[in-house]
Amino acid sequence: MFHIVSLLGFKLIYGDVNDIVDFLFSQNKICLYSANGEILNNIIFNNLPLVENYYLIPDGITTVYLAKNLNNLTIEKLPGIEVMQFIVDKFKEKSIYLFGAKEEVNNSLVERLKEQGVNIVGNKPGYGYDEEDLINDINKSKADVLFVALGSPMQEEFIFRAYERLNVKLIIPVGGAFDVLSGYKRGHQRYL
Questions:
Q1: What is the pLDDT of residues 66-83, one digit of tens each?
Q2: What are the chain's domains?
Q3: At what angle are helices 154-162 and 131-141 packed, to 10 degrees?
Q4: pTM (2 decimals)?
Q5: Which residues lie closer than 8 Å to 28 by C-beta, 6 or more apart?
Q6: Which pLDDT tens digit goes with each residue over 19-37?
Q7: Which region, left, alpha or beta, applies to residue 117 given φ > 0 means left and ψ of -120 to 50 means alpha?
Q8: Which residues does 35 contact at the CB level (< 8 Å), separation at least 6?
Q9: What are the strands of the beta sheet with 30-34, ordered from one edge?
Q10: Which of 18, 34, 112, 155 is most exposed, with minimal Cβ within 10 Å?
Q11: pLDDT tens digit string along 137-165?
Q12: Which pLDDT does position 191 carry in this prediction?
């Protein structure tokens, strides 16, 4: 079960990750942003642009606190890295494009995910790319899912600029998730 509510005027989706991801895949084209303190601050105070078709997930205690105090909701945190891990674990048939991080991190994650049977159809590191060539490469890959790991606010700004030109069903900015999931940086054991 999942719920969609307005939090500070933004669409927040929370609940069971399986139900949330099933719902997202039923949409035509959607972006799932992680609402942690940094992202919320950038959206509210620094005018970080969001695409028109989006949801926020409660990716931090700030969002959980605001939901409790503004909407009288008790919700659990759902980090973006957990959504990414869930998708690559449970939806191996979906075609995935990985954009971001250093070249060695990106390539290491591609190798690790392919070994697990994940359908990686393309990848590019987050440095030294031409945006038009990148968008063309993503579209040619026919990816269902695009994970963007540039860090905030760069990843959200890229998605905003490229959104209308991307032919991807689900776009998820994931910050430093590639570093953790590739094993390049230490993270919680459940992500490895």
A1: 999 999 999 999 999 999
A2: 2-191 (3.40.50.10700)
A3: 70
A4: 0.95
A5: 53, 169
A6: 999 999 999 999 999 999 9
A7: left
A8: 7, 10, 12, 56, 57, 58, 59, 60, 62, 63
A9: 2-7, 10-15, 54-57, 30-34, 170-173, 145-149, 95-100, 119-124
A10: 18
A11: 999 999 999 999 999 999 999 999 999 99
A12: 45
For the residues of 34-99, what is the DSSP string, one character each?
Answer: E--HHHHHHHHHS-----SSEEEE--SHHHHHHHHHHH--------HHHHHHHHHHH-TTSEEEEE
* Structural element, H or E, at residue 185: none
User: Minimal CA–CA distance to 100: which of 186, 181, 188?
Assistant: 181
Measured CA to CA, the distance from residue 170 to residue 57 in angstroms comes to 14
Q: Quick check: helix, strand or coil at residue 142?
A: coil
Q: Please give the backbone phi and psi of residue 173, each rounded to the nearest 5 degrees, phi first.
A: -75, 130
Cβ atoms of 50 and 31 closer than 8 Å: yes
Q: How far apart are the C-alpha atoms of 79 and 20, rounded to whole Å? A: 13
Q: Is the pLDDT of residue 55 over 90?
A: yes
Angle in degrees, CA 33, 172, 117, rounded to 5 = 145
Contact at 8 Å (CB) between 148 and 99? Answer: yes
